[in-house]
């Protein structure tokens, strides 16, 4: 094409090595990256050279205000960029993994992003057990919302206003149902739940950004079954447990890992039930994972 000037746009879909980009003039085009670069995510602001009327090459991305990602010992998976809020979607059925909830919370704290925990499908099954689990997180100061996206999405709407939010959670928790309820014209694929396996079937294969209004945006991410935190060091991990912060630096040893060391302020706080023992156990398990 003759016009080789850089165009500015927003990544609204991420399909592996190909990205959907919304240009500032409102057009949506399909893009690849220059070379082998694949470290982009929904929510990234990017600069593009058009190669055709509906295709382009991403040359660079702007500085991010935030980045949410997960990692194992070998690679990282970017989930969303420039978000101001994470909506962790849980459900009364299928049952949710509490360890996955904890890992999502830790990633959010480490990235400095606000959190809302949504317990969805409160019209189905017995919600008392799930609600009891979440009381611990409410006591820590996390906002917990109980609702049924199928019946009434209105409790969530005001919490999304003015934010770029990303929905995260296991498959089958109802993330796509939430997007459908908020944006009925988008026809997002809903997830079927296998009652035999008590787990969700993956239907969202790519992250996608939707505009709720001019100031509010929502990123629907693929369902998670794991959330590695190998990008955190031990110091970042311990600070990501918000209730640990008053006790950090008060152990006998400056390099205390809060595992077996004597006179550990965190372990003593857990013995006094000032810190929930299970949260300390989650920390110890993750710390050992990082130290291997």
TrEMBL record:
<keyword id="KW-0547">Nucleotide-binding</keyword>
<comment type="function">
    <text>One of several proteins that assist in the late maturation steps of the functional core of the 30S ribosomal subunit. Helps release RbfA from mature subunits. May play a role in the assembly of ribosomal proteins into the subunit. Circularly permuted GTPase that catalyzes slow GTP hydrolysis, GTPase activity is stimulated by the 30S ribosomal subunit.</text>
</comment>
<keyword id="KW-0479">Metal-binding</keyword>
<comment type="subunit">
    <text>Monomer. Associates with 30S ribosomal subunit, binds 16S rRNA.</text>
</comment>
<dbReference type="GO" id="GO:0042274">
    <property type="term" value="P:ribosomal small subunit biogenesis"/>
</dbReference>
<feature type="binding site">
    <location>
        <begin position="169"/>
        <end position="177"/>
    </location>
    <ligand>
        <name>GTP</name>
    </ligand>
</feature>
<keyword id="KW-0378">Hydrolase</keyword>
<dbReference type="InterPro" id="IPR012340">
    <property type="entry name" value="NA-bd_OB-fold"/>
</dbReference>
<feature type="domain" description="EngC GTPase">
    <location>
        <begin position="81"/>
        <end position="225"/>
    </location>
</feature>
<dbReference type="GO" id="GO:0019843">
    <property type="term" value="F:rRNA binding"/>
</dbReference>
<dbReference type="GO" id="GO:0005525">
    <property type="term" value="F:GTP binding"/>
</dbReference>
<dbReference type="GO" id="GO:0005737">
    <property type="term" value="C:cytoplasm"/>
</dbReference>
<feature type="binding site">
    <location>
        <position position="251"/>
    </location>
    <ligand>
        <name>Zn(2+)</name>
    </ligand>
</feature>
<keyword id="KW-0690">Ribosome biogenesis</keyword>
<dbReference type="InterPro" id="IPR004881">
    <property type="entry name" value="Ribosome_biogen_GTPase_RsgA"/>
</dbReference>
<keyword id="KW-0694">RNA-binding</keyword>
<keyword id="KW-0862">Zinc</keyword>
<feature type="binding site">
    <location>
        <begin position="120"/>
        <end position="123"/>
    </location>
    <ligand>
        <name>GTP</name>
    </ligand>
</feature>
<feature type="domain" description="CP-type G">
    <location>
        <begin position="71"/>
        <end position="227"/>
    </location>
</feature>
<dbReference type="InterPro" id="IPR027417">
    <property type="entry name" value="P-loop_NTPase"/>
</dbReference>
<dbReference type="InterPro" id="IPR030378">
    <property type="entry name" value="G_CP_dom"/>
</dbReference>
<feature type="binding site">
    <location>
        <position position="258"/>
    </location>
    <ligand>
        <name>Zn(2+)</name>
    </ligand>
</feature>
<dbReference type="InterPro" id="IPR010914">
    <property type="entry name" value="RsgA_GTPase_dom"/>
</dbReference>
<dbReference type="GO" id="GO:0046872">
    <property type="term" value="F:metal ion binding"/>
</dbReference>
<keyword id="KW-0342">GTP-binding</keyword>
<keyword id="KW-0699">rRNA-binding</keyword>
<dbReference type="GO" id="GO:0003924">
    <property type="term" value="F:GTPase activity"/>
</dbReference>
<keyword id="KW-0963">Cytoplasm</keyword>
<comment type="similarity">
    <text>Belongs to the TRAFAC class YlqF/YawG GTPase family. RsgA subfamily.</text>
</comment>
<dbReference type="Pfam" id="PF03193">
    <property type="entry name" value="RsgA_GTPase"/>
</dbReference>
<feature type="binding site">
    <location>
        <position position="256"/>
    </location>
    <ligand>
        <name>Zn(2+)</name>
    </ligand>
</feature>
<feature type="binding site">
    <location>
        <position position="264"/>
    </location>
    <ligand>
        <name>Zn(2+)</name>
    </ligand>
</feature>
<protein>
    <recommendedName>
        <fullName>Small ribosomal subunit biogenesis GTPase RsgA</fullName>
        <ecNumber>3.6.1.-</ecNumber>
    </recommendedName>
</protein>
